[in-house]
């Protein structure tokens, strides 16, 4: 669990989450100006109009990223990240397959690798 490979994956995933989570909180890169698909625009605008969903998800992503980088409660962070990474992947698969599907696959893959590396801590959940 403490190999260099695992540390690199943990750090990269944590950094990705902090950057994109902070973007949701601070709206540094407002992507609504160049969204190509009508479905994606409607979906994203509905979340923006509700008002609390993007900041909550952004705060969770930043929190999870900090936990991963600091190596605190990693299995807990990975458990929180699993539904978020699944939704990121499904969002880009169904609504925007051309632009950021690689990034979504990367987040899901890194999360899956870390879950696999920490599987001994997840085993009690399934027995």
From TrEMBL:
Keywords: Membrane, Transmembrane, Transmembrane helix. It comes from the Bacteria. The chain crosses the membrane at residues 12-30, 50-69, 76-95, 101-119. This is DoxX protein. It comes from Kordia algicida OT-1.
